[in-house]
Amino acid sequence: MFIKEGLMSSATWAGLRLSVVFMLFVLFASASIAGQCPVNVNLISNGDAEAQQTVTGNSDQDVTGWENETGAITVVRYGEAGGFPTATDPGPASRGNFFFSGGPSSALATATQRIDVSGCSTLIDTGGLTYDVSGYFGGRVGQNDRARLDLQFYNSSNTQIGLATIGPVTAADRGNATGLLARALNGSIPIATRSIEFVLFMIPQAGDNDGYADNLRFVILGPTAAEVAVAGRVSDGYGRGISLASVLITDLQGNSQMVRTSSFGYFTFEGVRAGQSYLISVMHKRYAFDPQVVDVSDSVSGISFVAK
After folding, report:
1. Per-residue pLDDT tens for 95-123?
2. pLDDT tens by residue, 46-92
3. How do the residues of the chain divide into helix, strand and coil, expressed in percent and rounded to 5?
4. Are 245 and 262 in contact (CB under 8 A)?
5. Which of 11, 106, 184, 204 is the most buried (most CB within 10 A)?
6. What is the CA radius of gyration of the chain?
């Protein structure tokens, strides 16, 4: 896709494109698609427990990036005295210096953080977004203290509409050895989701809470770049097709493609990338038309432009 001048002079094309980019800015600024969809990046803050490099020992503390803490959740350095996991025990290959622990208490320990995904609403509501969530979970020797991560999906009314969980890793899973094992899950973000809350649970069995976790990661996967067709018709107030009208489709980055209508007023754009919204505008020397914002999740036909 992009950019074909056809029979237009370069000066005319430049003026047309400048006016369309301005309209694009005005329309998209007020449209519901405003906002960015953060794809292909880890959205869990401090998921690797590395934000507090000066921590020593196994003491209850506020963990950077996490909120609503209960119990004595904390971070502990690999190799800390007292039987904690070392750099050579099972765990992440790129484990850094610290991991999450339930802390010096026999109580259930939890911590949360929430992300806003309203910028992905168009793609979410067409069922077009999936995610990967992963992490390492474990504990100490034969103790069955364990950890898990819940994903709680909320709509715009703050009502929970979905739940996914990874972990726990039990003592039997670990062969009664100290360490952390990988767990991962792929799923679809429920339609109408506007925020996601991550809840890290450290679940004790006896004594101090030795549920462990590290390298927590949640990634929204970008939609596939499928190419589809966008088609429609341009007509006058009497339903007669208007030929040789210039139809322009422009994406959010300002990239444009132009085609001309057939003798019966029909137009088709090929190779349009799905999963985006576009501004479509029509130019003709005798008629005026209002531009339209079109969400493209698959091939689209039947778009109608009628002269004012």
Report:
1. 999 999 999 999 999 999 999 999 999 88
2. 999 999 999 999 998 899 999 999 999 999 999 999 999 999 999 99
3. 10, 40, 50
4. no
5. 204
6. 27
Classify residue 120 by its DSSP letter: G
Burial class (CB in 10 A: 0-12, 13-18, 19+), 295: middle
Strand residue runs (E) in the chain: 67-70, 74-77, 98-103, 109-116, 130-139, 146-154, 160-166, 179-188, 195-203, 209-221, 227-235, 246-250, 256-260, 266-273, 276-283, 292-296, 300-306
Q: Which two tokens stand for residue 231?
A: 């088609």
Amino acid letter for position 258: M
Listed in sequence order, the DSSP H helices in 210-288 are: none
Do residues 3 and 255 touch, judged by C-beta distance below 8 A?
yes
pLDDT in tens, 191-250: 999 999 999 999 999 899 999 999 999 999 876 667 899 999 999 999 999 999 999 999
Instruction: Answer whether 84's CB lies under 8 Å from 78's CB.
Output: yes
pTM of the shown model: 0.65
